[in-house]
Task: structure prediction
Amino acid sequence: MINFQYARASDVADAVRMIAADPSAKFIAGGTNLIDLMKEHVERPSRLIDISRLPLKTVAETADGGLRIGALVPNSDLADHPLVAQRYPLLASAILAGASQQLRNMASTGGNLLQRTRCAYFYDTAAPCNKREPGSGCSAINRRSRMHAILGLSESCIATHPSDMCVALAALDATVHVAGPSGERAMAIADFHRLPGTTPQRDTNLQPNEIVTAVELPAQGFARNYTYLKIRDRLSYAFALVSVAAALELDADTIKEARLALGGVAHKPWRDKGAEAALRGQTASPATFAQAADLILRDAKGFTHNAFKIDLARKVIVRALTQAARGTPQSQSNKKIR
Amino acid sequence: MALARKRAAEQPIQIPEKIAVSLTVNGVARRLDVAPWTTLLDALRDHLDLTGTKKGCDHGQCGACTVLVDGRRINSCLTLAVMKDGSDVTTIEGLAKDGALHPLQQAFIDHDAFQCGYCTPGQICSAVGLLAEGKAKTADEIRELMSGNICRCGAYPNIVAAILQAMGQS
Result:
């Protein structure tokens, strides 16, 4: 691994001061992604600021019936939290669809938001990569792009965001709370992650001297009609080719509210509010769901190795909405898809 | 790699002092001085001579390095020793008590739940964590919650059988 200095932050303000004083420093919490990237020489911070002991580890109800999740709550604790399991089972299910229990025990909520793409060319320091080395080119376009984007991509980058948790957070309209030198601010999860455009080196709109402090969920949890359906190359412990977080509010067979977010297909969790609007007021049926899928995928673009994901995504969207409408969410241990 | 070396040369950093770390390892208080970049895995193997914990991929993908920190199973290759200062660590060497194997160790023998044995310390520590979590009830759930431990010999059916046996005893 690379050499670096190590320091421990005593509180959030201290952490912000420390990161502002050293532009080449990085925060470390769970470390599951950052240490891996440092071993590969992809990340080369001169200093690690250990925030893992900061008091950001609680899950608490908010005044408006939502939930505030501290940025350092481990992924496993979040998935197991009774309030999450009861009121936001979509979030619990998505978390349990990702990584392994060992990694979930380490990985933090804030770190999950900030994890970097698993694009093999981003990891390969001998290959050009606009995300790692701006201006060097994209090695993935027209090469091995099986794990890459079909939506929202640019000529600069076709990497995908690897998180499952963030796909559920996108569907649930979460808010990300951050602190910086000028105080605190909040961003909608939809505004937190970025599309690649011409600046794929920037994954998020978090500023370099800011720290994620919490993620907040609104009251509506869609605990009755939801699913997280993840398709991958092996049944467990693999990143998504396509995943879909689906949540519905039904009045008999009529869709009152619909949420759809896709993972594994774009540089950020992909939501299409137009497709959701088109579902509202419709009867829950495979034909309705197929129309929504067509809307979401109308501008999808495939490459040699990932064009199959367009048709796959269409099928996963329809199946996920069907599971959500039936109230039979995908099990994350028995992987048979019904 | 050439790029990485060039970068490292451009941005030399001052070599930091070693940092004192206190750990309770298998019930024994240990104090060691480590560089910041020493992973918990390397601290256990290279500084404390506890080589039961294995280095497989060194990237959190294989689970061979699984140990219990404050009772929870983690990949020791992806955490820094300095970050775990003050923690309680249990490795494969700490599971047997008073000369008697841990029920999971015995179950792995009873079911021949290994071939080459390299992944076994990680498998067993992971399974100790799994039993403590108490969430897995079925073979499907064991398979899912043990998916962070790879066995390239393919002893999975026997590993699941061994864990089911130990689960029945606990």
